Amino acid sequence: MEDEYLTIEALVRGEIKVKGSRFIATAKPIKAEGETRAFLQDISSQFWDATHNPYAYRLKGGVFRFSDAGEPSGTAGKPILSAIDSQGLTDVALVVTRYFGGTKLGVGGLSRAYHQAALSSLKRAKVISAYITKALTLEFPYDLINTVKRALVQYGAQPIEEEYSDQVRLTLAVRESLLGKLQTVITEATRGRAKVTS
């Protein structure tokens, strides 16, 4: 399905050693660039004494970024991104922390080390399917709560916000490919009494 993609379930870490240098790779599932900045700051704090902390991330919608973080151009960020892409992953940020071991690896050796380190963490990760979702807001009378909630469970809609006043107002995250079907089912089940307001 076009709205389905692969990501990782939770933060995971791997490590390799190459000619005395330690490469510690930390991968984390993310949803937005703001989360990435916080993650990078956290890793930089944890490994404050490291030689380098290059990174890469890929988000749904084609958004990606990478940084060599002081390593020679093209030797760190791109190989890390390449590792993410080789596993077909999205919504993943990955930082590879390097502690220099005294032996220079050269451009090719450095690129391979960063790529292998990144893979060492990703291969330990639990890969899961995720879905692109859209927000849907419904308003309906109280007597329709059970009818509406049955439909929502059937289509895996996740609540974002619930408001109870003179009517019930629910804002939900719905899988993009199921949005139209869910709206039709709710309209039919409630005979048009549940209104889509967004």
Counting DSSP H or I runs of 4 or more residues, the number of helices is 5
Overall 3D form: elongated
Tally of distinct domains: 2
Kindly report the spatial arrangement of strands forming the biggest sheet. Answer: 2-3-6-4-5
Total number of strands: 11
According to CATH, the fold-level topology of the largest domain is Ribosomal Protein S5, domain 2
How far apart the termini lie comes to 24 Å
The ordered string of helix (H) and strand (E) elements is EEEHEEHEHEEHEEHE
Please give a structural write-up.
- By secondary structure, this protein is of the alpha+beta class.
- It folds into two domains: 4-129, Impact, N-terminal domain (Ribosomal Protein S5, domain 2); 132-196, Alpha-Beta Plaits.
- Helix content is 31%, strand content 34%.
- It contains five helices and eleven strands; from the N terminus they run βββαββαβαββαββαβ.
- It has helices spanning 33-46, 77-86, 106-122, 145-154, 179-189; strands spanning 4-8, 12-18, 21-29, 55-58, 64-67, 92-99, 127-131, 133-140, 158-164, 168-175, 195-196.
- The strands form three sheets. It has a five-stranded antiparallel β-sheet, sandwiched between helices.
- α2 (77-86) runs parallel beside α3.
- The chain is elongated and about 75 Å long.
- The two termini are 24 Å apart.
- The model has no long low-confidence stretch (mean pLDDT 93).
